[in-house]
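Example record

One chain of 151 residues, shown exactly as stored in the release files.
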Amino acid sequence: MRRLDLRSLRFGGSSEVALRLPVDVAPFTIGGLEYAVGDGLVEIDLKASRVGGRLTLRALGETTIGGCCQRCLEDAVVPVVVECEDYVDEGRSEGDDEVERYTSGGVVDLERWVRDALAAGLPGRIVCREDCRGLCPRCGANLNEAGAHGH
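Predicted structure tokens for this chain:
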């Protein structure tokens, strides 16, 4: 699922709806390196609360991101918590007009919303392991594999 039509939410007599949704998230680039969500899907728990014509959307989920270690360039997989919140008034996200909105015409762009939350939740450095030694600045050898390395 990449988009959610807010008109499909069935509030009935309640002011809150809870859904579990699989959200497709395409690979994305950070710092010139490409990263991908584990199996391409992020399971989120979405809660939509309404008061009059206003909705508050909150999503929570967990996944892993795989890609290139920023120290040694080997494969790295890191856990990431997804936390999203958006406010919608009459089918449009609220906020500054210069800010891109996640909701337009009553449809939420779930993929972009979740991808942006993933990017915000990533650690400062994506590494294969905490004690990664990186690459030799002189010859480019992987210092994790080189053992005693010198020039």
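Notes: The first helix runs from residue 110 to 121.
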